[in-house]
Amino acid sequence: MDHVADAYRTDLMTITRFVLNEQSKHPESRGDFTILLSHIVLGCKFVCSAVNKAGLAKLIGLAGETNVQGEEQKKLDVLSNEVFVKALVSSGRTCILVSEEDEEATFVEPSKRGKYCVVFDPLDGSSNIDCGVSIGTIFGIYMIKDEGEPTIEDVLQPGKNMVAAGYCMYGSSCTLVLSAGRGVNGFTLDPSLGEFILTHPDIKIPNKGKIYSVNEGNAKNWDSPTAKYVEKCKFPKDGSSPKSLRYIGSMVADVHRTLLYGGIFLYPADKKSPNGKLRVLYEVFPMSFLMEQAGGQAFTGKQRALDLVPKKIHERSPIFLGSYDDVEDIKALYAAEE
């Protein structure tokens, strides 16, 4: 046995240790947020294990129901949703849950209530399960506005009011990326320990990237600024090299690559989906929050994404997010169109 290596392994920065270290910087903290996060982490571990077994466990076939978005549900979505709802309720720290899978928000019973609202997509990109493409869980956390009876207004807040956001990607490894408003950190699950280890401290997105990521199959329905931007990526007029196209079709995987390598991810509005396709609360906001925390930006085609005030829990919005300079370019094209 390599005792030196084993000793090193116990000195790792686990996510629990990391969050407790952060908590100790706030003497007034009661540890509620830490407890809530540990329940989210447990949910991610459970779903990671289920995703890895999906092909074997015959979980793949369709559950036969369609969710509120009209998408056919995979059994794994249903399972992941139940896992997160139960994990969040049992933490005793939440009062309202909004899930992509549930038409209505879930109000936690008074005896188990806390001060946090959690919005989440339990399994984003689940249509990719069959072919082994990375999928993930996305979440955002708000604090309720006041101590009274919680109402739906408590979650219909702009993204800039979020206290934390993150995603867990189930891919070649299981990676959890998290921000509580003081930078972005990435953790990777060590399966032999069952612990998330800090592997990507203080992630910063490059100011400019060489990659653009968009579903070009929708090009004939795009508006003019999006079409001009993509044309510019492919045929730059300033003598620079064209950008590379990378599009996985699983938001977590595409955003994760954008965060680490730089570039821009676009899901614009088009004639078919005039409000865009991605949901504001549990897709656009958490990813925009992470991008801004990492030094990038996020734009809806009209405004800063995090300034948007949602009116419905499943509202959709166009989104352009990624490297600061690349998003500036698309903003300039929309400004010129005005």
Extended strand count: 17
Helices, by number, come to: 8
Uncertain residue ranges? none
Report strand order across the widest sheet. Answer: 4-3-5-6-7-8-9-10
> Which structural category fits the helices and strands?
alpha+beta
Strand content: 15-25%
Cα-to-Cα separation, first versus last residue: 67 Å
The topology string of helices and strands comes to HHHEEHEEEEEEEEEHEHEEHEEEH
What is the CA-based Rg, rounded? 20 Å
What is the overall shape?
A: globular
Q: Give the proportion of residues in helices.
A: 25-40%
Q: Averaging pLDDT over every residue, what do you get?
A: 92
Largest sheet: 8 strands, mixed
Multimeric state: single chain
Fold and architecture overview:
Helix content is 31%, strand content 24%. The protein contains 8 helices and 17 strands. The chain has an 8-stranded mixed β-sheet, sandwiched between helices. The chain has a 5-stranded mixed β-sheet with strand order 12-11-13-17-15, with helices on both faces. It has a two-stranded antiparallel sheet with strand order 1-2. The longest helix is centred in the first third of the chain and has 22 residues, at 32-53. The protein starts with a helix and ends with a helix. It is globular and about 55 Å long. With 338 residues, it is α+β, with helices and mostly antiparallel strands.
